[in-house]
Amino acid sequence: MRIEKDSFGELSVPDDVFYGAQTARALSNFGLSDEVMPPRFIEACLAIKAAAAAANTELEVIGGDTATAIQKACQAAREHINDHQFPVDVFQTGSGTSTNMNVNEVVAYLASAASGLDINPNDDVNASQSSNDTIPAAIQISTALALEEDLLPAITALKNSLSQQGETHKDVVKTGRTHLMDAMPLTVQQEFSAWIEALDSCQRRINQCLPRLKALPLGGTAIGTGINAPRGFADSACRHLNHQTGNDFCPHNNAFYGISTQDVAVEASGLLKGLATSLIKISNDLRWMNSGPLAGLGEVLLPALQPGSSIMPGKVNPVIPEAVLMACYQVIGHDTAITLGAQSGNFQLNVSLPLIARNLLDSIALMSRSCEHLAHKVIDDLKVNHTALAEPLHRNPILVTALNPVLGYLKAAEIAKTAYADNRPIIDVAQEKTDLSREELETLLDPARLAHPHEQHD
Known about the structure:
The chain has helices spanning 21-29, 39-58, 64-77, 97-115, 121-125, 131-168, 188-213, 233-245, 255-260, 263-290, 319-342, 353-379, 386-393, 404-407, 409-422, 426-433, 438-444, 447-451; strands at 2-6, 9-13, 173-178, 181-187, 215-216, 250-251, 300-301, 345-346, 349-350, 383-384. The chain is mostly helical.
C-alpha cells in the first residue's frame, strides 16, 4: 500500500494501481453494479487530456515538459484501459467527476513516473477543464467515433449483403403479404430493397447528426462561462484533438447549452432506436420466411448454425435473427433510460452523464454487431427455396386484382371467392366466368408482369 492525498486528507491505495485518493474514495462509495465505464469512453477522456495539455502549453498555462509528459502518459494509459486502472462504477456521481478524476490521477501518476516531474492531477492534467465540460465532450467524441468507425461500416456491410442477394434473385417472383395474408406478387429483390432503403435511411440520419455530436462544450469548464480556462482554449484543444483523431471536432457555439443538456445524446439514441426497429422488422421477416421447414412458409433457408433443441433431434432454429431481436430490445430499453437521464438536467448541469455514456456506447456496439451478424452469418449464405415460392404463386386468388380494370371490382371479387372456395387457380375460374381468352388471362395474371406493372414486357 501507499499513501495518497486529496482535499479530504490521506488515504491508503494499493501500490500496484496508478490512480490516487479520489478514485479510491469513489470505489468505496459506488458499488451499485460492478460495471465500469466503456473503454471507448475512457479513450475519449484520454484524448481530451492529451489535447488539453497541448493547448495549455500553447497558451502558457503549463510548461512544455509537463505537457509532453502528460501527452505521453495519455498514450501509455491506453494500454491499461482493460486492466483495472479505471475501475469506477458506471452508477456514480452524475457529473462523472469520479471518472474524470480517475483519468486525471492515472495520467498524473504515469507522467510523473516517466518524467520525474511532479505532475498534479488537478492543477496540471485537469488544467483549463472541469468534469462538467470534459465528460459531456467525451460522450460526444466517443459516440461520434463509434458511429463512424463501427456502426456506419456495419450497416454498409449488411446493405451490401442484401444487395448482392437481391441481384442474384432479381427475377424470382414470390407472393407478397399484407396483414400476414396473401397479397400481390413481388420479386425477392424488391422485398430486400425495402430493407436496404430502411438501412440507408438510418445511415443518412446518423450522418446528419454527426456535426451536432462533434460540436464540443470544451472550454466551458464549470457551467459554461469558461472560468479558469484561457481565451482560445476551446479552439486550440479541438485543433489538437483533431490532429489526434483525424476528425473535425469543433467548439460548441454555446457551452452553457452543451454542458447543461444532453439533447444530442437523445437524438443519437433515437436514431439507434430507429435502426433497432428496422432490424427487428428484417429479423422477423427472415424468421417468417424461414419458418417450417414443412409446416411453415419455408421460402428461404437460413444457414444452419447449431442444434435447435435439447429434446427434438434435427431441429434447427433461426438463432441469429433471434439474438438480434434481443439486442434491439435492449437498445430500445437503453433509449428509454437515456431519455430519462437527459431530463435530469437541472439548471447548469446534467447529472446522469455516466449512464448516458454507457448506454449510448452499448447501443452502438449492439447495433454494429447485429448488422455484422445478419450480414455474414445469415444473408451471405441465405438460400431461396424456389419450389416453395413458385407453388402458391399462380394459385393466389389475389392475382385477380389485375382484372379490376377489365372486369370491375365486384366481378373480380366473385372470381376470387370462387377460387378460394374451390381451391383452384385463379386463371381457371376466370376463364370460366369471363369471355377473356386463356392467352389474355395468362398475360393479365402473369406474376412477373404484376411485380413490374410499369415495365415493358415482350
